[in-house]
């Protein structure tokens, strides 16, 4: 199933493929509508001609590699995985007309993983949305943090539509908190080495989202269910 997207603006970069063919890589500045590649992958974005390269979005693509394989299996399409964690599905047929170097396009198909990801580090941070501004309506984002030991999560900022948009934090044993509103949550101590963060938004009002960081927990205090104003939190 293909999803139409409207590209507000783009800049073209031509790269050289290892087999000698050209890669027409389009950098997107904004997508109005998009399909996601999976629930459990990191940030992805891409662009391809809708008559040549397929839309490889859909929940069946559970890893970045599956997305790459689906792209590579299509003639004249190639997947590029950069160190920044972004995967591009691009046209590599030099015989086709070169797209313009800049402008506005409509009716192309693409995918962009706008939120969520998987981390394997004892230290890190999550900022949603990544590039500032407000998060989008109807989001469903999952982050997974895998570490060697329990961690402490500290929030820097938090702003969501109260009682409509929620961030759920849990580990493998407990639901550690359900957060909504504009009050900055108190630090969270996990009890296991795997932590899940699940953010959802509805169709109406949005906010600026949240920013947090994690680090190894020096100790794991007892979990309490004392609520913070504007939030609900505690084990369930």
UniProtKB/TrEMBL annotation:
Keyword annotations: Disulfide bond, Repeat
Q: Per the record's keyword annotation, is Protein transport included, yes or no?
A: no
Top-rank taxon of the source lineage equals Eukaryota
Keyword Chloroplast in record? no
Q: Where is the CUB domain?
A: 115-217
What is the protein's name according to its record? CUB domain-containing protein
Name the species this protein comes from. Meganyctiphanes norvegica
């Amino acid at each position: 199933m293909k999803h139409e997207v409207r590209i507000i603006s783009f800049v073209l970069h031509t790269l050289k493929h290892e087999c000698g063919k050209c890669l027409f890589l389009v950098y997107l500045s904004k997508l109005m509508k998009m399909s996601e590649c999976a629930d459990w992958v990191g940030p992805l974005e891409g662009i391809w001609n809708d008559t040549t390269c397929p839309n490889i979005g859909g929940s069946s693509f559970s890893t970045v590699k599956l997305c790459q394989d689906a792209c590579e299996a299509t003639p004249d399409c190639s997947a590029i995985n950069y160190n920044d964690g972004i995967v591009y599905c691009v046209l590599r047929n030099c015989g086709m007309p070169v797209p313009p170097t800049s402008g506005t396009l409509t009716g192309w198909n693409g995918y962009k993983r706008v939120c969520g990801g998987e981390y394997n580090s004892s230290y890190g941070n999550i900022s949603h949305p990544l590039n500032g501004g407000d998060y989008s309506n109807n989001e469903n984002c999952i982050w997974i943090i895998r570490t060697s030991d329990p961690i402490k999560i500290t929030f820097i900022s938090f702003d969501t539509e109260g009682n409509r948009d929620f961030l759920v934090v849990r580990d493998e044993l407990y639901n550690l908190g359900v957060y909504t509103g504009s009050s900055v949550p108190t630090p969270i101590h996990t009890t296991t080495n795997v932590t899940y963060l699940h953010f959802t938004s509805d169709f109406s009002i949005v906010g600026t989202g949240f920013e947090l960081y994690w680090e190894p927990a020096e100790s794991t205090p007892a979990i309490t269910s004392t609520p913070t104003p504007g939030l609900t939190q505690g084990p369930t």
